[in-house]
Structure formats: C-alpha cells, structure tokens
C-alpha cells in the first residue's frame, strides 16, 4: 500500500489566524485524514513548502562527510556519561528492543512469516549523532537529557546546517501535531503545548554500506521510537520497513520532496493507545543493493544517512491520556509518568543509559 501524502500548505496558509471551530470543512477533513493515518498506520507522508530537497541534500552531504571520518575522530564526540543523548553513538552500542524484549519476541513468532521482521543477532550496526533542536528548560530534573551540544572539529558549517534543517523539520512536526490534535477532537495546542522546551533531537544515523552492504544485513533492528513523533527526510538508500497497525509489513518509499512521519511511544501514551507507536527496522534489501551499485558508478558516498528528527514531550511534563482518551478502556495501561522518567527507563533497556 502507499502511505497517504498530506500537503501542509493549506493549513500553513491560515495557521495562527483561525481557531479550531472556524476551520473550513476542507481543512477539518484534512486534519481528520492526518489523524486517521497516524491511528491506522502509525505513519504518513507530508509535504511542507518550508522543507526543500536542497535543504535535505545539504544536510546529508555534511553527514556523509562526517560519518566517513576515521573512527578515532568520531569517538571524540562520544558522551556515554550523558546516556549518548548528545554527540555520537558508535555502531554496536544501541540494542534493538526486539533482541531483549521477550514479550515482543513472542508476538513476532505469532506473525505470518511474510510479515515477520529480520531477527537481530546483536546491537545495531548504525552510527548516530544527536543534536539538540530548540531551547532547553532553564530548570529541569533531567539535566542529562538537556545537555549542551557537541560540535566536531573541522566542520565550520556544522551548527548552521544542523540548526537550519532541524528547525525546519521540527516546524513541520509542530504543524502535524496541531492538525492531529484537531483531528482527534482535542484543543489544537493539546500536543504542541507539551512539546515546548522538549529535548528534541536531530538524530541522523550513518550505516557503512561498503562494510555492511550485503543483502539481509540488519542496520537497525525491529523497534519502536520512545519519543512523541519522528520525522525523516528522504534517504539516498532504501531499506526502511514499517509495520502498520494491522500487522502488515511495508517497505517505505518516500517520494522526492516529501517527509515521512512516524508515531512514537509518547503519542501512544497521550492518546491512551488510540495511536500505537509504529514498529520499524532498517535492512539492506535488493533495492538497497541497486542503490549501492548506482552510487559506486557515480563515485558517491556509500554511507546510508537517515535524515531523522525525534520530537519529544518536555522532560518535566507528565505523560497521561488527554481529553476523551482518559475515558478509554485502555487508559489504565498508561498511568501518569513524567516524560523524562519514561525516557530514562527506555534508555536503560536499549543500552543508552551509560556504559554497562
């Protein structure tokens, strides 16, 4: 199936000007389509005129250069004592949830064979860089989740490139969050008010396809995202598989000029399970192999960079079902918890809460 593409332009044209009840029937329907896609598939594609192909390309070019730097250079930006929440996370550190979660493993065995994910045999083979986007809270119980950024030497364009692309993507996500709230029948700032001063992370990953370019290689094992919403620009190498709410496995194809949105665990919490955190993996497929061959012919980088941003609920805000979702029969599965406390619990499970 093809994921729906939602053009944000009509909503952007009136954003900030009209209150919820004054939206035109067409815009109300568009918000309904967006929220329905998040509920039913855990994903959707959006077009935002503020996020250009050129912006994404400039960002990926810089990250390809960074990830192709020597190992000894990259680990200078490693901050394990801060739970890897700023700077670089080397390959073979982050453990995919499906490798250690026994309940998840049982569910996977019950899936039809054609929908089952690849089975991880160890930590992920991807590198990742975390760069904070947006203001941090002046006073927080979760300092390590709101640490100062790490800038590698030799990249004078680093801060401007990271901030420029990161702010554009978080702006797109804020519009999606507002439209989703309207579609769910909540006040339009129900989500965005909780996102203020959240530990949003521009989080590009880098996978070395010269080293790990064999078909079937798992670059990022089957997992969900622990944050609120995740957004990706188009990667130069295919390989992302997602699972719809009905259990169907879909290989994602992001059209040029589009951004991919995925639901995280925090929106699942806030909607009392009406939205479910989307499961996904990144694997070398036959389409990845074709892209590798083309890149070799064109003498381009063989690092697969994901242009990813994780939007979070503010660390000191409380996660709990909102509005009518508090009355849901599933709401008891989502007791109130501080967002930062929840994130720390998840990081401990996937091996990012410092060295073991």
The biggest beta sheet is recorded as: 9 strands, mixed
Calculate the terminal CA-CA distance, rounded to whole Å.
41 Å
Q: What does the oligomeric state look like here?
A: single chain
Order of helices and strands: EHHEHHEHHEHHEEEEEEEHEHEEEH
Characterize the overall form: globular
Number of domains: 1
Q: Which homologous superfamily in CATH is the superfamily?
A: B-lactam Antibiotic, Isopenicillin N Synthase, Chain
Uncertain spans = none
Query: What is the CATH topology?
Result: Jelly Rolls
Which class do the helix and strand fractions yield?
alpha+beta
- The level 1 CATH classification is Mainly Beta
Q: Judging by the overall fold, what is the CATH architecture?
A: Sandwich
How are the SSEs ordered, and which strands pair?
Blueprint: E1 5-7, H1 9-12, H2 25-41, E2 43-47, H3 53-67, H4 71-74, E3 87-89, H5 97-100, H6 102-110, E4 127-132, H7 158-183, H8 192-195, E5 201-202, E6 205-208, E7 218-223, E8 229-233, E9 240-243, E10 249-251, E11 259-263, H9 265-270, E12 279-283, H10 286-297, E13 303-311, E14 318-319, E15 337-338, H11 339-349
Parallel strand pairs: 1-2
Antiparallel strand pairs: 2-11, 3-4, 4-5, 4-6, 5-13, 6-13, 7-12, 8-11, 8-13, 9-10, 9-12, 14-15
Helix pairs in contact: 2-7, 3-7
Protein name: Putative isopenicillin N synthase
GO molecular function: metal ion binding; oxidoreductase activity
Keywords: Iron, Metal-binding, Oxidoreductase
